[in-house]
Design goal:
Oligomer: single chain
Order of helices and strands: EHEEEHHHHEEHHHHHHHHH
Number of strands: 6
Low-confidence stretches: none
Shape: globular
Helix content: 40-55%
Mean pLDDT: 93
Largest sheet: 4 strands, antiparallel
Length: 308
């Protein structure tokens, strides 16, 4: 077991991250109510599985409490990823690789100030990698999220690696090589299985490397992602924002987010379809447009749940 510490720059609440995951269908996350976030995932290298227990110290006068991670690596026989590589991946998953010290300054926008008050310390909780985000996008096309989540969980349980994390057994989503070996998955069409195979090839070729995607101009990164079979404009944004953890992208193809924006900013229905107008409003959120978009999504989800 290896222990690393990540010191947040700016507001961060692990408890808020856990609450978000509980309501995020693709994560299928079940909180143990002990203040520990349990993670099991394929490492960025595509050859190892990481089991991690994440905890946060109490806040200090200087800001958010330090985040402590105990992790173990289960290798498939190849070279294990370095401690730094695993630490960096976990930091990216929790958006702790981004300097959030400037985020509170966005509270000059009253809508953003209200979101920050309601979701104190919440940063985007990302998929474990662009690869896994893309797999989710392919699995979830044209089916209900709950059905897609069940299929994804089935793939992890049948074809991923089981690991023990702080007293629990979790199943990591399989890496690219294991995904290539899938031939039939209940609930998946043959076309989706073929697209998952193409995705595995793209990941093995390094086309889904998070750092490389984030280093590109946003339009170039989205174009590269759309070259992967089954990844359209909406999915490409999901992979870049929630897979690679890009902190500053306004999603142009997410209608539910646009509707939430219109609601929060008092716009009428026609203005909710005026994407350039919405993008102009979102320019106020730079360089954290992805972060504010997540808070708007969380607000919309909570309001939707309250009406059921």
């Amino acid at each position: 077991m290896t222990t690393v510490t990540i010191t947040p720059s700016g507001p961060f609440s692990l408890a808020a991250s856990v609450r978000f995951l509980e309501g995020f269908t693709p994560a299928s996350y079940d909180d143990a109510a002990d203040g520990t976030l349990r993670l099991a995932f394929p490492a960025d290298d595509g050859h190892a599985t990481v089991a991690a227990a994440v905890r946060q110290d109490e806040p200090t006068d200087d800001g958010a409490g330090a985040v402590r991670v105990d992790f173990a690596v289960q290798s498939d026989g190849g070279e294990e990823p370095s401690t730094e590589a695993v630490r960096n991946q976990i930091a990216r998953i929790l958006s702790l690789d981004v300097d959030g010290a400037g985020f509170p300054a966005l509270a000059t926008d009253p809508v953003v100030a209200g979101l920050m008050a309601d979701y104190a310390g919440l940063r985007p909780v990302c998929f474990y990698s662009p690869y896994e985000a893309a797999a989710w996008a392919i699995i979830g096309q044209r089916v209900r999220m709950t059905q897609a989540a069940a299929v994804k969980a089935h793939i992890a349980e049948r074809h991923g690696s089981p690991v023990r994390v702080a007293g629990r057994t979790l199943h990591a989503f399989p890496g690219p090589q294991a995904l290539l070996e899938l031939t039939h998955v209940p609930g998946l069409t043959d076309v989706k299985v073929e697209r998952l195979h193409a995705l595995a090839d793209a990941a093995a070729d390094g086309e889904l490397d998070a750092a490389k995607l984030r280093a590109k101009p946003v339009d170039d990164a989205l174009t590269a992602l759309r070259a992967v079979p089954g990844i359209g404009p909406f999915s490409a944004e999901l992979v870049l924002i929630r897979g690679a953890g890009h902190p500053d992208v306004f999603p142009l193809h997410e209608r539910r987010l646009h509707a939430s924006m219109a609601d929060e900013y008092g716009l009428d229905t026609s203005e909710a379809d005026d994407v350039p107008r919405l993008a102009g409003i979102a320019d106020r959120w730079r360089p954290y447009r992805s972060w504010v978009a997540l808070l708007l999504r969380a607000r919309a989800e909570d309001r939707g749940a309250a009406h059921h």
